[in-house]
């Protein structure tokens, strides 16, 4: 069995196949497969290939974002990838029409470009059709234009997303809900065409909540319809969710004969709309996710799902449910919030009921109402009437016919959707006709009545919402005639007036009722608000309209918030030269717009006002007028006439200032000269560079040579080359184009590379000889070439594999080309090389650190050439050595260099030096120094970004010790301060003091001026060494005081006392330092200091960093830090390490293992008796410091067993092995730990004899004081029982305490209990 691991999207190319044994309806197929896809010609379109490669690249980035925990970007990238996957499916399906395919292609390319920008990837340049441009076939100017166009589109998209994100954040508290309904089946045996209306209904208020959703069902079952009958009821807010009950109502209307059971269908009237049935189900229970409801004689199977968001959000978040084929049924009314820019103009007309006289008929009429929308000329408007969502628009609407009913109740609602500009000239016309069940009679039936209603009133407002009784006129068809008649009771209270006004017009006694609901963001039913919105048509009424605005209902204002605010600011701007309306506009702005936001009823409109300010507000000069009126109200706040308006203005300050700030920002953007100048400069610079690059691209070698030959004067040629080199270097360093314009950057680099090569040839030909050598010109060339090589856009290792492959295949590695050119130019210098040392050491080092192996192999030998030049000139290469060490520290700390560079540097220079007669020894020594430095710098760089502060301190100490060894004082001081700062971050004040003390030790008590490198920090400065050292001492004393190391502070105080008293005679400072010194002495005696414990830690295994691998350290614990806590901290720093259970020395196999093994145990410091304390009764407070400080040796006692364990007495053959550890420096010091440099172990057998006599003599001196201490003994007896239980756990410490009294290794007595042993010790 052989398996080929594949991932989704991998290209598999079947190169060859062969048939084998029959198996499973076929044969074994043996394939020769090229999985890489290289060289494979696919039949996919270029756009599909681009989407595939983009998804692969984004997938890797998405994985990295997920690992790093960037949740926001993870979701954004995932959403974009899902969009591309869906669009890719649509393209591959091949079912899209050309116009939709073109539109989808634009969306795909726009999304790819935006996503690449969002993820910091390269910008793709395209033509107007979205096709990727080929740089070889496109001019540089065209590429520049394409880049700029793409960038504008991306910026627009980013700004739109930011606005959308802003609104989503602000709208988080205002939820828009939608109900998704999918019709699964319609089970009904009717035998006629059927119309099924679905809507949301509130039985408590007996009102419909939403408009209808209509789907038609034929006589036979249509399987294709089952998956396409979907609707979303939108704009549902919190009010709807709080309703006591909401029902999904289903009304069924059949379209056919009057009588469903009729037999003689040939003579019956067809096409009549007849009510068949109705049903409803309660959907207010939030737990219901899937409902099935069967009606009595028929059934409608539906599934329901509550979705959050408006229709735009639903299409983005639920594309599998809500697509273009899904019908949208809007709420009968406005949603809770109306965002600026949302335009709606729907007029809902409901046929309620009528009362009709039977006239000359023997039975009641079968009334059918036909509604149409007509203009002022009587012309019927086409396709403006909608029976419901999901239906096609109609020219006219025919109502349901009820059989022989005098007062039919229709309650049928239709939507009239006409352009806003047409509303002012249209009206609704209703025709009434009797429908007979017999087709022959029905043909003879005429319209027996007509009614109408205008949508606009004479005052310019729309028809008011609610019930309207319409007059029914007889035999009136001329539009010019009936439009002069009153339409109903709202127009005329006297029903007889029509006949009096127009002779011959007959008004019937029939009654007809409708209700209307206007849902429009542009048509208002309020006269006062309309007067403001149309203020230009009647300027003389402007003052009155502004005053009347404050009386308008708040609900009406918020519906037209954007139009209202636009009108107010237009009034202000169009009267900018006058202050006539400023106060009124300000009052209207405060009271009618902003103040509404403070009302709890309209608090959910806050985001709407925020959106208006950020997106739609455009009054650039409004800030001046608003500030002027605001200041007026502030100045007159005490005035009784202005007190109330001033107070209300103060309550609205938040939005007043937002309007002021936004207006001022817009003014700066539009009229800011400097911003405009900056944009113009950038535009001109980009165009200039593009034009210059285009010209250079077209120049061949002959053109360059011809241009160079035009300079007859060498000085003119020098000036030209100097200016060109400087200009190229500036253009490279300033990044003329954004980093993601990879095509423009690479085109520019390729052109510049060729130009630099041409100018280098000119240097060799004209300015290399001794007589005409131009040092500055050559120096500029080298700096330009190195700047070109090290620029960010050419560092291929920072790019993805795909991008790196594309660049190399098209342009090659330009770093290698320019690097080889620099090497050749250097060797061409001959005797002039010494003039470039040490100045060129840094640039050459920067070039060799570029991680390209061939480039390094070619350029590192330049260093040996520099060593030779300086050695032959000066007899040494100290300048070169000092410069390369200084530059290495800077470059490696900045992120350059690696282990490969260290190995290549060592190998190449060692090989070269060993072949040289005089440089073999000093060269080898120099290479060793650089190798050691690189090791420490690489360790330091690797660990500096780590959270482990102790590792960072260790690497810093390694470096500063190295620089002290090679006597590089300025770098040594720099790393001392880095260590000092690390200690302060960890609050290691004692260690920070010892670190600064190393700095102070470099200085003398003299009045010599400080060298510049000694004044490293502004906080510790001094003009003389004495002044600087004094400042450092005072800081160190403060640190020791915080660390309770008063003995160390006293030492420095004494040194300062000597200076103040005997050298500079500053008695004021002397008295101050003596007071501090006295306080330190007092602290030593009176203040209790916690004793620090010490721990030995071994790091074994190859998994640890080199500076701690297979080494043991002694750590000084923090105050009250137990061994268990210390171990937990170590294991947290190395989560993959394993704690060793044994305290024995590590074996070699363990040290060579690949993992991480941690060994940790407590050790005891060895107190070295100070000469001044011998044979003296010294206070324990004084001695306690020296017992655990200023120590270098530590001991650990390990119990071992000689022979087999005695079952009767486990202590019979128990012995003690004692190990002494010596560290490099005393603790405490500049670190809280130091490496163990030597270990000595005392074996049990010899040590039980020799040390015993030496330990006996001190015993009497220890016994003699006992009589004087007998009296306190009873007071110490009582606590003894409470401490008995822990004694077994303290056997090890007790055993270690035997050693000062007896031999280091003599065994425990076989019958001595731990308690007895403790008493012996005491």
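Q: What amino acid sequence fits the structure above?
A:
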């Amino acid at each position: 069995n052989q398996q080929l691991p594949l991932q989704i999207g991998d290209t598999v190319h079947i190169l060859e196949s062969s048939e084998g044994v029959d198996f499973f309806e076929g044969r074994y197929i043996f394939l020769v497969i090229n999985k890489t896809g290289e060289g494979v010609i696919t039949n996919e379109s270029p756009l599909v290939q681009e989407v595939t490669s983009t998804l692969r690249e984004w997938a890797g980035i998405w994985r990295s974002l997920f690992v790093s925990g960037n949740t926001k970007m993870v979701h954004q990238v995932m959403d974009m990838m899902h969009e591309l996957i869906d669009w890719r499916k649509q393209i591959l399906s091949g079912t899209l029409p050309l116009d939709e395919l073109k539109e989808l292609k634009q969306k795909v390319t726009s999304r790819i470009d935006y996503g690449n920008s969002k993820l910091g990837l390269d910008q793709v340049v395209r033509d107007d059709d979205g096709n990727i441009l080929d740089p070889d076939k496109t001019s540089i100017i065209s590429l520049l234009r394409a880049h700029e166009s793409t960038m504008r589109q991306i910026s627009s998209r980013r700004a739109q997303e930011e606005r959308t994100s802003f609104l989503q954040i602000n709208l988080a508290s205002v939820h828009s809900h939608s109900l998704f309904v999918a019709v699964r089946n319609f089970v009904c045996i009717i035998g006629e065409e059927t119309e099924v209306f679905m809507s949301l209904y509130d039985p408590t208020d007996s009102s419909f909540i939403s408009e209808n959703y209509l789907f038609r069902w034929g006589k036979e079952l249509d399987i294709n319809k089952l998956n396409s009958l979907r609707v979303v009821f939108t704009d549902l807010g919190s009010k709807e969710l709080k309703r006591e009950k909401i029902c999904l109502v289903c009304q069924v209307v059949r379209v056919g004969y009057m009588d469903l059971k009729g037999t003689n269908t040939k003579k019956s009237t067809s096409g009549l709309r007849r009510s068949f049935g109705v049903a409803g189900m309660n959907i207010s229970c939030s737990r219901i996710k899937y409902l099935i409801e069967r009606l009595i004689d028929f059934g409608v199977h539906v599934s329901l799902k509550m979705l959050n968001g408006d229709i735009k959000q639903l299409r983005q978040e639920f594309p599998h449910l809500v697509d273009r084929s899904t019908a949208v049924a809007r709420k009968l009314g406005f949603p809770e919030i109306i965002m600026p820019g949302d335009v709606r103009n729907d007029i809902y007309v409901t046929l309620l009921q009528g009362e009709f006289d039977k006239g000359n008929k023997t039975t009641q009429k079968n009334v059918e109402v036909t509604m149409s929308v007509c203009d002022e000329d009587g012309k019927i408007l086409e396709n403006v009437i909608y029976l419901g969502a999901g239906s096609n628009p109609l020219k006219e609407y025919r109502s349901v016919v009820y059989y022989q009913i005098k007062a039919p109740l229709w309650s049928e609602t239709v939507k009239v959707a006409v352009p806003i500009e047409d509303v002012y000239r249209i009206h609704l016309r209703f025709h009434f006709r009797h429908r007979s069940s017999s087709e022959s009679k029905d043909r003879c039936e005429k319209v027996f009545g007509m009614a109408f209603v205008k949508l606009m009133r004479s005052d310019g407002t729309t028809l008011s919402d609610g019930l309207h009784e319409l007059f029914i006129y007889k035999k009136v068809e001329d539009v010019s005639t009936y439009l002069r008649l009153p339409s109903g009771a709202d127009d005329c209270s006297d029903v007889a007036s029509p006949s009096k006004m127009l002779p011959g017009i007959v008004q019937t006694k029939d009654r007809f009722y409708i209700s209307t609901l206007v849902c429009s963001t542009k048509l208002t039913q309020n006269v006062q608000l309309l007067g403001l919105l149309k203020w230009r048509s009647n300027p003389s009424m402007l003052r009155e309209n502004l005053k009347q605005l404050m009386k308008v209902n708040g609900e009406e204002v918020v519906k037209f918030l954007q139009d209202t605010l636009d009108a107010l600011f237009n009034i202000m701007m169009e009267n900018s030269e006058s202050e006539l309306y400023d106060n009124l506009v300000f009052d209207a702005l405060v009271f009618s717009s902003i103040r509404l936001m403070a009302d709890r009823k309209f608090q959910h409109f806050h985001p709407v006002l925020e959106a208006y300010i950020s997106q739609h507000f455009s009054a650039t000069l409004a800030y001046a007028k608003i500030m002027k009126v605001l200041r007026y109200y502030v100045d007159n706040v005490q005035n009784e006439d202005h007190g109330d308006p001033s107070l209300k203005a103060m309550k609205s300050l938040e939005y007043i200032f937002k309007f002021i700030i936004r207006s001022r920002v817009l003014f700066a953007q539009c009229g800011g000269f400097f911003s405009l100048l900056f944009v113009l400069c950038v535009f001109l610079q980009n165009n200039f560079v593009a034009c210059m690059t285009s010209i250079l691209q077209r120049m061949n070698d002959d053109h360059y040579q011809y241009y160079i030959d035009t300079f007859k004067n060498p000085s003119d040629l020098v000036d030209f080359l100097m200016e060109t080199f400087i200009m190229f270097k500036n253009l490279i360093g300033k990044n003329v184009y954004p980093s993601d314009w990879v095509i423009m950057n690479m085109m520019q680099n390729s052109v510049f590379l060729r130009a630099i090569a041409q100018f280098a040839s000119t240097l060799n030909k004209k300015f290399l000889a001794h007589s005409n050598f131009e040092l500055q010109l050559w120096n500029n060339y080298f700096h330009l070439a190195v700047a070109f090589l090290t620029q960010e856009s050419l560092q291929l290792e920072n790019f993805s594999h795909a991008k790196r492959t594309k660049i190399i295949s098209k342009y090659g590695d330009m770093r290698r080309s320019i690097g080889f050119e620099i090497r050749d130019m250097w060797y061409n210098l001959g005797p002039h090389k010494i003039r470039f040392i040490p100045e060129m050491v840094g640039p050459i080092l920067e070039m060799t650190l570029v991680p390209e192996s061939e480039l390094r192999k070619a350029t590192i030998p330049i260093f040996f050439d520099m060593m030779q030049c300086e050695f032959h000139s000066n007899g040494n290469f100290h300048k070169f050595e000092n410069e390369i060490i200084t530059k290495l520290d800077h470059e490696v700390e900045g992120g350059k260099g690696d282990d490969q560079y260290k190995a290549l540097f060592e190998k190449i220079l060692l090989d070269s030096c060993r072949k040289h007669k005089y440089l073999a020894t000093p060269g080898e020594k120099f290479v060793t120094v650089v190798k050691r430095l690189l090791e420490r710098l690489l360790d330091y760089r690797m660990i500096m970004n780590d959270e482990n502060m102790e590792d960072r301190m260790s690497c810093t100490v390694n470096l500063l010790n190295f620089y002290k060894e090679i006597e590089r004082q300025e770098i040594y001081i720099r790393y001392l301060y880095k260590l000092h700062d690390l200690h302060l971050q960890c609050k290691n004040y004692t260690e920070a003091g010892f670190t600064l003390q190393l700095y102070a030790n470099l200085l003398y008590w003299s009045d010599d001026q400080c060298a510049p490198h000694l004044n490293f920090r502004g906080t510790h400065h001094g003009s003389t060494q004495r002044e600087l050292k004094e400042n450092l001492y005072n800081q160190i004393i403060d640190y020791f005081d915080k660390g309770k190391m008063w003995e160390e502070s006293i030492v420095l105080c004494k040194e300062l006392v000597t200076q103040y008293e005997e050298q500079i005679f500053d008695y004021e400072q002397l008295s101050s330092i003596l007071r501090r010194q006295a306080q330190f002495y007092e602290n030593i005696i009176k203040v209790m200091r916690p004793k620090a414990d010490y721990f030995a830690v071994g790091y074994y295994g190859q998994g640890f960093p080199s500076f701690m691998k297979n080494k043991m350290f002694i750590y000084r614990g923090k105050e009250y830090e137990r061994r268990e806590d210390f171990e937990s901290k170590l294991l947290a720093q190395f989560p993959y390490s394993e704690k060793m259970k044994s305290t024995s020395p590590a074996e070699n196999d363990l040290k060579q293992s690949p993992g991480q093994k941690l060994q940790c145990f407590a050790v005891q410091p060895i107190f070295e008796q100070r000469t001044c304390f011998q044979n003296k009764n010294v206070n324990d407070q004084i001695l306690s410091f020296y017992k655990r400080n200023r120590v270098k040796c530590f001991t650990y006692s390990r119990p071992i067993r000689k022979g087999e364990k005695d079952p009767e007495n486990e202590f019979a053959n128990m012995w003690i092995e004692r190990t002494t550890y010596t560290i490099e420096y005393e603790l405490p010091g500049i670190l809280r730990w130091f490496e163990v440099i030597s270990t000595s172990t005392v074996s049990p057998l010899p040590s039980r004899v020799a040390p015993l006599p030496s330990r006996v003599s001190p015993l009497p001196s220890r016994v003699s004081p006992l009589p004087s201490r007998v009296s306190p003994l009873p007071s110490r007896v009582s606590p003894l029982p409470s401490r008995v239980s822990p004694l077994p756990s303290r056997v090890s410490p007790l055993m270690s305490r035997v050693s000062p009294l007896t031999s280091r290794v003599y065994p425990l007595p076989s019958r001595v209990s731990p308690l007895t042993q403790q008493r012996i010790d005491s």
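Q: And what stands out in the fold?
A: Residues 260 and 1222 are 111 Å apart (CA to CA).
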